[in-house]
Structures are given as structure tokens and as C-alpha cells.
């Protein structure tokens, strides 16, 4: 990388700018950007690097950051856009664009994977990528391993939004026992819940049986499940059912306590009179039906 580039701000023609690191845009988010710029104007200039057009000899520019803003100006039929113009090589521009995208709070998981891989392919070490992107060395190493080891099932799951990148990386790094720990921690930290957790479990089972996979299944590389694995899976299912039973029992006890408490209160004439004075003469039908059911059961 070169030293900090010299820069200045000017209006430049939108059709002279080339996007060197194009990304797929969320249409709804893009429409919001267009609406905001149309109403309030451009709050922050884009950043470009100056180039010479080899064909015409005129100035041309490579986009460093601000693709959404540039495309919004084009959608609004604007000929020129405010831009911070810097002096930097194409390689530096690409790296700055990748780093800027990685530093965003919101980005597509697949873009994150590909951007880290592009930095790696550009000759940067794992530690250098971690420093530039403010990600941990372990995380960057895991992402690169995910791509280079051809974890097709995990990559498809990340791309479709079934599991986060961090969970995919942890699964790729773990052994059979460690994978269960990864899923448990993801559940406890609320990263995977409900349908996403079940999808992750099915993914892990498919990966264990058929390998990393390019297609939906690869019977030729099927793995035999050991007795220990089967017993561990059975024990995990038993433990989960025990937890569900304990939760169901606790909920039932709480419901009985609340119902009995309400029944006792409603049998107190002074309490009922107070409710009427406050305009609370009726109770929800579901509760009334439950109280009636209790009375009928005792009769």
C-alpha cells in the first residue's frame, strides 16, 4: 500500500466512473437511498481515484466507495456527482473498496466471504487482512479455510441466509463432537433459533453423511456412523426431550397457581365490588371457560 493519498473534492461526470468492485444491491435499500438523495441531496461525496482514459486521453475515474450513491444519481438522471478524488493505484483502490465494504455494519454474508478471499488473492497475509478489516486473525483464517477447503454445503447455507458466516466457520473448524458444541453455543447466544437451528442441524447431518458436497447428495462419499455417534445423537435427543418436559411441567404448575389464585379472588365479594367500581366487571372468555372447567371437574 502507498502512503495516504492526496485528495480534493470536485463535481465529476457520472459516466466517467468505473465501478471496480461491483456488488448486488438490495432493491428496497436502494430505493430508500434514491428517495433520500432526491429529497435531501447528497450528504457525503463518493470517493474515486483519477485515471487517464487510454482511448480518448481524457480523465476517467475508478470508484473506491459509494456505489449506491452513484447508482442513485444515475437513477435520478443526474450528469455529475460530488466526489472526493484521490491519487491511488488500481490495486490500492480495490483494497480500499474491499476494506470499506467489510467495515460496514450490514453486508451480505457471501460478499464478506468473497471480499476476504479477494484480499488474500491480492497477496495480503491473514494478519494484514485482519488488521485492515478489524476482524480477528482467527476469524479471517477460518473464512479463508472455508473457501479454500471447498465447503460447498456451508457456503450454500451462508449464501441462502440459513446460517451466519461465523457459525459456518466454526463448523468447518470443528470435529464431530465440536460441531454439536458449536450449535449449542449458537443457540444459547440466540444466533440460531427455531427454523434456522433445525436447518443448521440438517446441514450438519448431511455434511457428516455425504461430505462437503457440490450437489444435493454424494452417496459415493457417504460416511458410516459409529456406535458412539449414534449413542451421542440419541442421548442429545433424550436430553432435549427432558428439558421440554421440565418446561411443560413448570408452565402447567404456574397456570394452575394463577388459575387458583384468580378463582380465590373472584370468590371474594369485596374484590368483585372493587372490580365493578373500576369498570372491570368482565374477564376474558378463555379465563372464564377455564374457571368453569375447574368447577365442573370438582363437581
Automatic annotation (TrEMBL):
Source species, domain of life: Bacteria
* Residue ranges occupied by any ParB-like N-terminal domain in the UniProt entry: 10-102
One GO cellular component term, please give it: chromosome
Q: Which SUPFAM superfamilies match?
A: KorB DNA-binding domain-like, ParB/Sulfiredoxin
Q: Name one Pfam family in it.
A: ParB_N
GO BP annotations, alphabetical order: chromosome segregation
InterPro entries (alphabetical): Chromosome_partition/occlusion, ParB/Sulfiredoxin_sf, ParB_N, Plasmid_RepB
- Supply the name of the protein: ParB N-terminal domain-containing protein
Give the organism the record lists. Halocynthiibacter styelae
Q: What is the lineage of its organism?
A: Bacteria, Pseudomonadati, Pseudomonadota, Alphaproteobacteria, Rhodobacterales
Amino acid at each position: 500500500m502507498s502512503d495516504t493519498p492526496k485528495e480534493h473534492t470536485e463535481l465529476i461526470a457520472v459516466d466517467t466512473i468505473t465501478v471496480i468492485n461491483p456488488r448486488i444491491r438490495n432493491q428496497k435499500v436502494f430505493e430508500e437511498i434514491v428517495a433520500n438523495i432526491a429529497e435531501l441531496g447528497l450528504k457525503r461525496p463518493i470517493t474515486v481515484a483519477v485515471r487517464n482514459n487510454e482511448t480518448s486521453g481524457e480523465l476517467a475515474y475508478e470508484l473506491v466507495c459509494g456505489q449506491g450513491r452513484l447508482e442513485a444519481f444515475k437513477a435520478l438522471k443526474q450528469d455529475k456527482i460530488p466526489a472526493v478524488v484521490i491519487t491511488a493505484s488500481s490495486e490500492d483502490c480495490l483494497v480500499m473498496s474491499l476494506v470499506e465494504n467489510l467495515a460496514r455494519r450490514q453486508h451480505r454474508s457471501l460478499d464478506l466471504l468473497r471480499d476476504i478471499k479477494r484480499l488474500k488473492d491480492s497477496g495480503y497475509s491473514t494478519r494484514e487482512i485482519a488488521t485492515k478489516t478489524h476482524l480477528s486473525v482467527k476469524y479471517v483464517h477460518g473464512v479463508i479455510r472455508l473457501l479454500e477447503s471447498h465447503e460447498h454445503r456451508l457456503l450454500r447455507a451462508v449464501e441462502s441466509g440459513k446460517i451466519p458466516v461465523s457459525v459456518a466457520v466454526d463448523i468447518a473448524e470443528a470435529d464431530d463432537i465440536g460441531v454439536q458444541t458449536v450449535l449449542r453455543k449458537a443457540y444459547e447466544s440466540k444466533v440460531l433459533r427455531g427454523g434456522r437451528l433445525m436447518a443448521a442441524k440438517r446441514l450438519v447431518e448431511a455434511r457428516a453423511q455425504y461430505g462437503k458436497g457440490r450437489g444435493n447428495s454424494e452417496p459415493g462419499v457417504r460416511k458410516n456412523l459409529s456406535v458412539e455417534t449414534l449413542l451421542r445423537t440419541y442421548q442429545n435427543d433424550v436430553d432435549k426431550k427432558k428439558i421440554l418436559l421440565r418446561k411443560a411441567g413448570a408452565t402447567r404448575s404456574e397456570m394452575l397457581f394463577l388459575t387458583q389464585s384468580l378463582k380465590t379472588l373472584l370468590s371474594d365479594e369485596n374484590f368483585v365490588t372493587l372490580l365493578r367500581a373500576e369498570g372491570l366487571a368482565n374477564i376474558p372468555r378463555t379465563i372464564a371457560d377455564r374457571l368453569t372447567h375447574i368447577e365442573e371437574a370438582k363437581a
